[in-house]
Structures are given as C-alpha cells and as structure tokens.
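As agreed, record passed on underneath.
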Amino acid sequence: MKQVRITVLRKARYDDLIAGYENPIKHACDLSEGDTFVSVDGRRPDGLCESAWESMRYFVEELSKGGGNFYDGWMKDPCSAMISCNDGFRPVSFYIEASEK
C-alpha cells in the first residue's frame, strides 16, 4: 500500500453564519495552513480530526491501494484529490496525494 500525504491548504471562517446559526463552542479546529499528515495503510493519521477524516477517508483509502482518477479526470494529478471537511462554519481544504515514500 502507498502512503498518502494530507496537506492543509486553506482554512475559511464564515463569521456571519457563525453569528446566525452556531451555538458558542469552546473548541474549534486546531489545524493550520501547511500542516501535513501521512496516512499509512489507509488509516487516519494521529492529530487529524475524526470529522475531517470521515470527509476524506474514501479518497485516502483508494489512493493507498493505488487507485485514483476520481470522477474521470477531476484532478490534474490523477493520484490526488482536494477535499474539504464538513464544517460549514470553518471549512478546511485538504490536498490529498499518493506518496511513494
């Protein structure tokens, strides 16, 4: 199985949606742009939140098995994917790529 690198490319925050719809929370995402994780054998890396993992798990598992070319040519690099976590208030965009290491 291949290792899969997961890189945080962008974080967004929608204060208007937070003010209008979210109950106050004490803990939001700790990730920072540029953070990198490595999935070994298609497993969730330590430090990657479970909610984000659920958004990307299928793609990571497929890439770890040598798959790719999602949605028939969606990505320029067929051994990659761009996935966002499912937090509508503070979405994080992840670049996922198969690694030969």
The longest strand covers residues 3-11. The chain has one domain: 3-99.
